[in-house]
Design a protein that fits this description.
Number of strands: 3
Number of helices: 12
Shape: globular
Strand order of the largest sheet: 2-1-3
Number of domains: 2
Order of helices and strands: HHHHHHHHHHEEEHH
Helix content: 55-70%
Distance between the termini: 30 Å
């Protein structure tokens, strides 16, 4: 995808998620998301941090997290989540249109992040949030190749992912087929959508324990 198209997807997703979050009840804000240990509130808080992140504060947070990236992300999200839901919605709406990336972040990272986190919120709430197909395809390819933090090629070694709604496949072995959005979630470590996947590989993957996936 061209950069302009990727930024447009990010803008649209942020604005759409702000609208979705603004419509939630207090109970829905506390619903567990697909991100382990996070509710909808923490995911919402996390979504606006990247566009506002600057190098020096990130370095300070890295020290506080003792160099652990996942701890850094968790710490900052939980701190931001202490704010009122209305503030979180306003913050997310404000960063739609921003062209700032977090230190060390690539544009493909930012697009993948907002697409996946949108599903982290929507799926547990039982909400249908269609994902732009070409953006999902590009994000699935990016996630498959990127290594840290998802290590999709290592986790899914022995499986072949085949999209049924766009031209995309990756890996080799037992076939796991389904919508590209669901395959993106699988590649990024989300197994909540396994019921939407088909093929012998999907059947085998469903029998594995969460620790083995």
């Amino acid at each position: 995808m061209e950069k302009a198209a990727m930024w447009q997807v990010i803008d649209d997703e942020r604005a759409g998620l702000a609208d979705l979050l603004a419509s939630l009840t207090e109970e829905q804000w506390t619903c567990p998301s697909l991100c382990e240990g996070w509710t909808v509130r923490e995911v919402a808080a996390h979504l606006s941090i990247g566009p506002r992140a600057r190098l020096m504060p990130i370095l300070i947070e890295t020290v506080r997290a003792r160099g652990n990236f996942n701890r850094l992300v968790d710490n900052t999200a939980r701190r931001e989540a202490a704010r009122a839901p209305g503030e979180l919605v306003t913050e997310l709406r404000a960063v739609s249109g921003s062209r700032h990336l977090a230190p060390g972040q690539k544009l493909a990272d930012a697009m993948m992040d907002v697409l996946v986190h949108g599903q982290d919120i929507a799926i547990p709430l039982g909400l249908d949030r269609p994902m732009p197909l070409e953006a999902a395809r590009c994000s699935a390819e990016h996630t498959w190749r990127m290594g840290f933090p998802f290590h999709a090629r290592r986790r899914l070694r022995g499986y072949r992912l085949v999209a049924t709604d766009v031209s995309w496949s990756a890996g080799s072995g037992a076939v796991i087929s389904g919508p590209i959005a669901t395959l993106l979630l699988l590649a990024s470590g989300r197994h909540a959508a396994l019921s939407q996947l088909a093929g012998p590989g999907a059947t085998a993957l469903r029998t594995r324990t969460p620790a083995d996936r």
